[in-house]
Amino acid sequence: MFTNYKDAVEWIHSRLKFGIKPGLKRMEWMMERLGNPEKKIPIIHIAGTNGKGSTVSYLQNIFTEAGYKVGTFTSPYIEVFNERISVDGEPISDDEMVALVNEIKPLSEQLAETELNSPTEFEVITAMAFYYFGVVNQPDIIILETGLGGKFDSTNIVEPILSIITNVGFDHMAILGDTIEEIAGEKAGIIKENAPVITGVGNKKALDVIQRTVEEKNVPLFALDNDIKITESSLKENQELFSLSTPFRNYEDLLLTMRGEHQLKNASLAVTAINYLQEENKFPITEKQLRTGLEKTSWKGRFETMSKDPLIIIDGAHNIEGVESLVDVVNRHYGDRKIHILFSALADKDFKPMIERLTAIATSMAFTTFDFPRAASAVDLYDACPIEDKRYYESWEEALEKFIQCNDDVYIVTGSLYFISGVRRYLMK
Which of 189, 212, 354, 419 is deepest in the core (most CB within 10 A)? Predict the structure, then answer.
């Protein structure tokens, strides 16, 4: 039995040594012994290469605005570990985290004695979330984000009322596959009978895979640019303004605080999901509540302004699609300014194309590393950069102090979410 938070979280992290073990048998074993808490609450299940977190946040804010109690399960965390299991946007308490670990640890030890072996870190956290939402503190709805892929992700034991696949890009290829079709097949693994699918997938080959899966499962598909259309978009006082047509409703002048064309897409998927549930008379929500929920939405570490003078923005662009979105937002909002970029990434990411794409907007680039087992070295990142105005720092704290000047330029800190998480905590202080 754990009595303090630090020991409880250390035990969770000790499961990292079991790596990533695709498959659902261990989750099913644990859930059965807990009385299948994951079946007690309606769930929206979200997969995708990028945009999952923002889409979760739009949905959570709209439901909360309408007076519903909303459970969310997301990863990774930005500020505190507890963020992963939240209610109405608030992380669970340290005491609740300790109680959950004490509930799941004996089960984990029993499971280790079977032929299925020990559960992984992510399986343990997922089991804790299901137990919390199903038994300890039941919400009206759960918005559930996959950790990796979909088909064999530990969240995929659920029977959702709705599935969302935000997009499909090249990430985690060592696990999910080398081709866009293979990766799409993994994401499409969350598609279940009786749960319509909403998607922002634009790649035709990936969309074909999703199309075939929905036909097999005999469920409706609502796809961006086909059934869901962004009809107009513009900037209004540094915010995004857009009009939207879903299969159910039309909206003029929806306003977003979160910036970038990719955010219009994420918001459109969330609005379509809400519309579908309204049609089914499952969750009555007014248009005013929907609009207010969208406008109130922010997501830590996603093109987030940390300081206005000097202008410092952090963004967890940790794969090529994320970098493309970042470049688009910078061009959209700061196309006339000098841009300086501080970047760090994981060594197992294909960071060279990410750096090359960032040089399209960068006046200068700096590279650093951070305290994480898989972090790339500052020198390796520096060597991958083709522009002349570049430098590297072994310490990211030193990089922030020396790299950022008090002037009218824009300073963007980007790369791995694990890196951004540390930077954000440091800048908040």
Answer: 419
Looking at residue 150, what is its pLDDT? 86
168-224 pLDDT, tens digit per residue, is 876 544 555 578 898 899 899 999 999 999 999 999 999 999 999 999 999 999 999
Q: Decide if 133 contacts 37 (C-beta within 8 A).
A: yes
Mean pLDDT of the chain: 93
Q: Which of 99, 62, 92 is nearest to 74 (CA)?
A: 92
* The two structure tokens encoding residue 297: 């939405």
Whether residue 183 contacts residue 170, with contact meaning beta carbons closer than 8 Å, is answered with yes
Whether the CB-CB separation of 365 and 413 falls below 8 Å is answered with no
Q: Tell me, what's the pLDDT at 216?
A: 96
Contact between 278 and 247 under an 8 Å Cβ cutoff? The reply is no
Q: Residue 175: what pLDDT?
A: 53
Half-sphere exposure in the Cβ direction for 380 (13 Å, CA): 13
Whether 429 shows a pLDDT value over 90: the answer reads no
DSSP-assigned letters across all residues of 169-231: -S-SHHHH-SSHHHHHHHHGGG--TT--EEE----HHHHHHHHHHHHHHT--EEEBTTTBEEE
Per-residue H/E/C for 338-353:
CEEEEEECECCCCHHH
Virtual CA dihedral for 108, 110, 115, 117, nearest 10 degrees?
A: 20
Contact between 196 and 229 (Cβ < 8 Å): no
**Sequence-separated (6 or more) residues with CB below 8 Å from residue 326:** 260, 303, 315, 317, 358, 412, 414
Q: Quick one: angle between helices 121-131 and 25-33, nearest 10?
A: 30
Q: What is the pLDDT of residue 48?
A: 93
User: 177-216: b or e for each residue (b if 16 or more CB lie within 10 Å)?
Assistant: beebeebbbbbbbbbbeebbbbbbbeeeebbebbbebbee
Supply the pLDDT for residue 174.
Answer: 52
How far apart (Å, rounded) are the C-alpha atoms in residues 379 and 309? 30
Cβ atoms within 10 A of the Cβ of 94, count?
A: 16
CA distance linking residue 302 with residue 250, whole number of Å: 27
Residue with tokens 């993994």: 186
Query: Which residues, 6+ apart, have CB-to-CB distance to 248 below 8 Å?
Result: 272, 275, 276, 278, 279
Task: Give the pLDDT score at 163.
Answer: 98
- Alpha carbon distance 281, 275 (integer Å): 10
In Å, what is the CA distance from 24 to each residue of 66, 217, 235, 346? 34, 20, 45, 27
